[in-house]
## 1
Amino acid sequence: MRAARLLAEIGDARGRFPTADSLACLAGVAPSTRQSGKVKAVTFRWSADKELRDALCDFAGDSRHANPWAADLYAQAIARGHDHPHAVRILGRAWANIIWRCWQDGVAYDPNRHNALQRILNKTTAMAS
């Protein structure tokens, strides 16, 4: 259900998102940076496709319960002092990169090819031994 909603929000026109960052920015999971002279402000991205943001954050938030890499990334964000919504957006941006790559290559997500996930799994296996 969540993946179907995410697919519906992203659409099927690959040209709409030439880069993973363009997907993350439209989805509102990438921060907005404004700079003027020596002043730089990094803030929440208000101008975004709110339905896409909701779909991606919903997917990302639930992924942390089933995916050790997602749980670790979320836990790291919380440990750095981010609140839950911000930590989910951080996780959503990471998933946006993965989703975009799979979409561009025309392949399904393969946990065995996800290097960061494999590092987490190998570390967990090594600690259990």
Note: The longest strand covers residues 32-36.
## 2
Amino acid sequence: MDIFGKAVKFGDNVNTDVIIPGKYLELIDPEELGKHALEGLDPKFTQKAKDGVILIGGKNFGCGSSREQAATALKSAGVRCVLAESFARIFYRNAINVGLPALECIGISKKADEGDMISVDLRSGTVENQTTGTTLKASPLPQFILSLLEEGGLIPHVRGLIGKR
């Protein structure tokens, strides 16, 4: 599974309250949530993300509350993959559950700049900054996580299991 996109970069400790502010948690349509993703940090984020981006984060990306809507909002806004130095565990799992690839990639925040073209091989964990020619190694995803992502997340996976009964 290869993913390509322009880098959109944020720093350390980007929390779920900033990813999708609490005032939008009453929204249930993923597309509506996506319209408000990261608006407090970058009011132009949704414009940048609409054609598909790779979100670059620093340490502790997705810290804060356990709101699943944060990962949903990013995916719906056009984020194809999140690469970060480290993740808050609950955000990481929520991202996988909604079908948004998230990989820890040590050094990514120093090796990618806003607008760089990034490719990610989810199977091997290879991350290439095509703009600079730099290659990094992210923690590869296990096969069962890759399968969940291919199916669109946990809910589609479970629905598929129920349908096979």
Note: Residues 154-163 form the longest helix (10 residues).
## 3
Amino acid sequence: MSVNLVCLRKEFLPSDFFFRHLTDVLDQLLTENSLDLGEVNLIITGDDELERLNRQYRGKEGPTDVLSFPYLESGMEEMQQGEDFAVGDIYISLDRALTQAEEAGTKAEMEIALLAIHGLLHLAGYDHDSESGAKVMRQKEQETLSSLNSRIKGEQ
């Protein structure tokens, strides 16, 4: 299993320390959702790209903070073969992440982590289309973010 980081906005590169811990919690989510051998691409870009993707794939105007593109079909035959497979791509808008971090009074890296976790949960089949689904998803996001914080604080 692996999480690949592609930073298309070079003015922001997460530290190796932070990315290692983020990768650990994302790998943990993959394992918890029986996606152990899966590969995820985490792509950090800007509002322009998220706006283009949002319009093209969701038919919605304007940028958004995170979009997930799953590669797995129902049945997930790839997993049954015991071979590595692509789970999907997570696109994060650095512009939105920086704005949201400032509004929340948090660090940009932690906002990006929250968006990455949110995106990965979508790839794993979680959704927030219903009130109950949103509650479950928010709870899992907070548990995972808390685990990330504990890992970071434990090593500092």
Note: The helical segments are 16-32, 47-58, 77-80, 94-104, 108-123, 131-155.
## 4
Amino acid sequence: MSAVIIGIAIGLVLGLTGAGGSLFAVPLLILFLGLPVQEAMGLALAVVAASSLFGVLQRLKSNLILFTPGLLLALSGALFAPVGNWLATFLDSNTLIIGFMILTVIIAIRMWRHASAHPEEAVIVRAGQEETIEPAELLCKSGHKGKFELKPRCIASLVIGGSIVGFLSGLLGVGGGFLIVPLLMYISQMNINKAVSTSLLIITIISLSGFISYYLHSENFNWLLLGKIVSGGLIGMYLGTKTSAYIAGVRLQKIFAVTIVVFSTITLVHQY
């Protein structure tokens, strides 16, 4: 299968579901391009970073990206992504795939349950209309002008959350959108649309950090292959954002949840 087509598929998933591009990318790169596990995880981070950056550029004038919490969380994650990548160099391919499989199943179950419990949020992906949520007991609060109040509890929650996402990103080649969006909504009064938009900035920085760490540990890096996958990812992201407002929803989220588990299972069997 063409590397460009695989990139388009990854970008479409990012655009249509709002997260999970790397969960789809890693199995595709292993199964259809025959890449080693660590190389697939490194390239997945690159295409997710590029596709997410495309989404950030689309939203710079929308006021949906909250840069203060986003950059704090992203920079924390960027520091820990190399740690996860360093640890991955000591693990064999089977161990990494098993870890990836476990994470995929956990995310798929959460995605299925969340789509059923909150169907109105299933249509808020890379494109969607802003809606509000009721504030709960918050770790991060906004002042009267809507700016984040960076108090100790808020800073600590963003740093810890970012560190965990960054570590998993470097270790398993995942962008982390599946953790970032609920984290932002849990610790603040951020609505789903702003959380998804802000997650694009965070995913871009963390994924880029993870990819750079992978690149520095790699030999004979294939830039041509990366270019093909990334170009396809940008095309897919564009198509996904243009069509998500029409087809995104509960059914699509559930189909994606099942699909990533199926592909991860096939990849695990393929490794053995």
Note: The beta strands are 141-142, 148-149.
